[in-house]
Amino acid sequence: MARSVKKQAGKQDPATPQPTSSREHRKDVKKTAKAEQKAAKTRASTEQKSAKATAKAAKKTAKAQKKGEYGRITPGNTKKILGILKIAGPAIAPFAAKAAFTARDGYDRMRARRIGIPVEDLGRFSGRGAALHARIAGDADALHDLRMKAGGQGGNGDSAARQVGVEQFTDRAEQRLSQLTSAVRAAERMPGNRRRAAHRAVAGELDRIEADLLHRLEL
Q1: Which long-range contacts (CB under 8 A, 24 or more apart) does 49-56 make?
Q2: How far apart are CA 214 and CA 143, in angstroms?
Q3: In Å, how far are 126, 142, 170 from 216, measured between CA atoms?
Q4: Are 138 and 177 in contact (CB under 8 A)?
Q5: Distance (Å, rounded) from C-alpha 105 to C-alpha 86?
Q6: Where is the composition biased (Basic and acidic residues) (predicted)?
Q7: Domain map of the chain by residue range?
Q8: Per residue in 116-171, pLDDT tens?
């Protein structure tokens, strides 16, 4: 009987859970607390950066409203927008590239409308005289069309005389356009007042060439 009781005392109940190591438990608690602390620190840093960026953006907006530039896309405020996006960091990182592309695309479209050319042709015309360069290129194309149109007309003496007149006009006009192109390029390095005066003079010459060109194209 005593032997039977001793044997039963030596057995463990399989339903009774094994005790967990207190050292491992403390380790897990410490690791979890450290991870939560790091996450909280990251969130606080992100929120702080976002708050600073928002405050800076509000200040820039107020300044732009005072200057009358609010809502307008300019080279200056495009750079400022990109700078603010960079400062904001992880909070707005997924949207930064899209916002930068949208700002740049809007500015390019505005420039293209101002110059009067398609957006894809912006690379051909640059500088402060870009609009004049684009206008000169358009006039050169029109002169080429006029020459081809006159060359395709045969027949009587009147047509031949008209063709000679067109050839002489296009030769003179193309030579003048070449001179005006050089003048616009030279004006890029001039002081503001002189550059604007040079641009006005070139625009006046183009007005005269275009008026004669439209007359010869019977428009």
Answers
A1: 49/87, 49/88, 49/89, 49/90, 49/91, 50/88, 50/91, 50/92, 52/87, 53/84, 53/87, 53/88, 53/91, 53/92, 56/84, 56/87
A2: 10
A3: 31, 11, 10
A4: no
A5: 18
A6: 22-50
A7: 43-115, 127-216
A8: 777 777 777 788 888 899 889 889 988 998 888 877 665 555 677 778 888 889 99
